[in-house]
Amino acid sequence: MKKKALTGILVASMLGMMLTGCGDNKEVTKTDDTKVEITTEKESEATETVVEETTEVETEAPTEEVKADFLTENGLTVTPNGSMTIPLAVMNTDDMIDVPITTSVETVASSEEGYSDTTLKVDIDAKAAAGQYYTCNVSAFDRYTGTSYESKPTSLGTNNGSMHENVVVVDVDGTQYDCALTADMNMDSNYVQHVTVTVHHPSDYNGVVFVFGGQTATQNTAYNAIDTSKTFTIADYSDVFIDGQYFFTATDK
After folding, report:
1. Which of 25, 144, 236, 240 could form a disulfide with 232 if both were Cys (CB 3.0 to 4.6 A apart)?
2. What's the gap between Cα 125 and its chain centre?
3. Does the reported pTM lie above 0.85?
């Protein structure tokens, strides 16, 4: 379902105060090239000489079949959750302004049997915008196929016998998952803008990826021209859902 509300204006405070902040996230990969050395001694009865025979065996981790990954295939990188400074768009322009944000993603069991809710929370320090009005883009998609949860809504019967309306059905290796996207935003008394985006999905589905970034006037025009009468991937509208955007998941991967 197309989310008009998510591209609304986020109002910055008029305090004229500039704050900055950033997060530094590093990932360390450890490689273990373990070799096992087996030594046997054989004694010849005739010559009574000892022959040492050494065999090196290289251990390899078992190969695990991995699903096709839209992120990897398209060279997209997941940003670790935390505090950082990113550019958001100045309202009705293509200009950008750096604004500190803090993100988190969490998956919890839903009240509906067999379903879970994965939620992105973004806290935006509106004071740092120094009186500017700014706009942002918030969305979500399937990591295996790239299918946007803003694609054409449909209906699907669920395993618990109910019928889900206005959901986007994602097909991953022949298995269908119905996903629904909702969002909300508000500002507190400390001029922190809280953006919450939730995807309701089957509990055995782990493909939710969130999109967050600035939405310029040019991108807003392109967004409003999206054909939501059919299923599409974020690559079909990369100028809206990829260019200048950040990607977040519950596992930071």
Report:
1. 236
2. 21
3. no
Distance CA 144, CA 249 (A): 13
Q: How far apart are CA 180 and CA 183, in angstroms?
A: 10
DSSP 37-88: EEEEEEE-TTT--EEEEEEEEE--PPP------HHHHTT--BPPSSEEEEEE
Domain spans of the chain, in order of start: 4-24+68-248
Q: How many CB atoms lie within 10 A of CB 64?
A: 5
156 vs 162, 165, 215, 238, CA distance in Å?
A: 9, 7, 32, 28
Tens-digit pLDDT profile for residues 109-119 = 999 999 999 99
Which of 60 and 14 is assigned the larger pLDDT?
60
Name the CA dihedral angle for 218, 134, 179, 175, rounded to a multiple of 10 degrees.
Answer: 50
